Amino acid sequence: MRQAALSHSEWAANACDLALVTGQRREDVSLFRFSDIRDGRLFVTQGKTGHKLAISLNLRLDAAGLFLQDVIERCRVNNPSNFMLYSSIRRGGRKPGPLFPDGLTQAFSDLRDSSGLRFGPNPPSFHEIRSLAGRLYEVEYGEEFAQRLPGHKNSAMTKKYLDARSAEYVMV
């Protein structure tokens, strides 16, 4: 799939890598901005839950050979926008600009279908990258880290967040 992404477009490979190294939802990945980077961290407020994360730019996913900082730097190449995922290509009436979640889904579907890989009746979606990230991070960093990165909470963690009134970012 990664090789198919490289042949599709710069942004498709970057989108897959951002999703994998950050473990975030497509809606959040599509909204990542360079201006969200401060003090060596990518600050994310998840759209679905409002959960706030501050992800270190030094985050590394060894299984994929990815550093968050490197992926972000690749997103800057040929990108005049503040959005990390930007396309200058006009297709089907689309204007150049940031990518939308449905665009990520469609591109991933196209990549999946062109990859030559065979899937059953329920092929993976872009969201499966988030699940894969969780599984890989659990092996490399442990269960607690793999739970914090995507913003999942258990009862003990929920109490911590409630104490902070959800106003503080969780350092990852």
TrEMBL record:
InterPro entries: DNA_brk_join_enz, Integrase-like_cat_sf, Integrase_catalytic. Residues 1-172 form the Tyr recombinase domain. Pfam families: Phage_integrase. PROSITE patterns: TYR_RECOMBINASE. Keywords: DNA recombination. The keyword Ligase does not apply. This is Tyrosine-type recombinase/integrase.
